[in-house]
Amino acid sequence: MSELIYSRQTCIEGWKQEKLSNARILMIGCGALGNHVGIGLIGLGVGNIFLYDHDIIEDHNLNRQSLFCIEDIGKKKSESLKKRLNERNARIKVYANSDKVTEDNISLLLQNIDLVIDCVDNVETRQLVSRECIIKDIPLVHGGISWDGGQVGVITRKTACLSCIFPQKKEPGAPCRDEIIPGVVYSSQIIAGLMVEQVRKVLNPLPGELGPIGPLLYYYPNEPNHFVYKPILRRLGCECHDLLEELNPEILEQEALEKKSKMDADNNAMQQLGIIDSSKRPSIQEDILEKKTTSKKKSSKAGK
Length: 304
Ligand SMILES: [Zn+2]
Fold this sequence. Notes:
The chain folds into two domains: 7-236, 3-Layer(aba) Sandwich (Rossmann fold); 248-303, no CATH class. It is built from eleven helices and eight strands. The chain has helices at residues 7-10, 17-21, 32-44, 77-88, 106-109, 123-136, 162-165, 185-203, 239-247, 249-272, 284-303; strands at 24-28, 48-52, 93-97, 115-118, 140-146, 149-155, 217-219, 227-229. The protein has an eight-stranded mixed sheet, sandwiched between helices. The termini are far apart. Residues 160-161, 163-164, 234-235, 238, 240 line the site of zinc ion (ZN). Zinc ion binds at residues 160-161, 163-164, 234-235, 238, 240.
């Protein structure tokens, strides 16, 4: 790969271009987000890009799917995006597939992949991809947009999954919202830019920098604070609990410990401020010990 193309980023302290050029990324969805994330992946110099989308380009896509032209209408999105990306750098290996992502092929799609990018437009596929990323322990960069907002975050085994975030069960292929979703180019560019930043941070972290965004950073164009970070906790009863219990229960134990120590800290802080009368309310530890003792008593009674 020409060194000159990337010379303005390889001069950044700690930057390891080979990590990007050796990476294998699967991007699902080649629409508005996919177009702008695709430009970003070429810009970063990601060496192997696998594109998946079963849609055809339509005229109403062209206001925001910036790499597609009038002549592309009626063609497959994945194939057209591959062509446009290779025009920007022919040395990058771009592969296109226009099959639908399903339960039957998802496992194969994620084989030998370092990172997955979610530019999907329906809840069912998001949940499917998120589940497989947990199983294979592959980081997932998630993005979502409409004309009046958006969101971005990196999903791993240590965060809430996309089924925690989108718990609703939708009919297969149903879009994230039931009505037609209006779309403008700039919200795609803003969210796609943040997604590409997360890709770089996961694959090529720099010393001393803030790590990738945990779920989720929200974009609110109609609020004075355009960006608001809201940590999303794992949802009780979500399928990721069962998966992790099978695959890596230590993560759930660690999460429970962290949650307890945070509650203890909050409790202590409130006691110091006099908000809680410590003589009347047991500490979190006592509360848990109390519950354990009660359940032991119950089980010993049941044993008798
Ligand atoms: Zn979950």
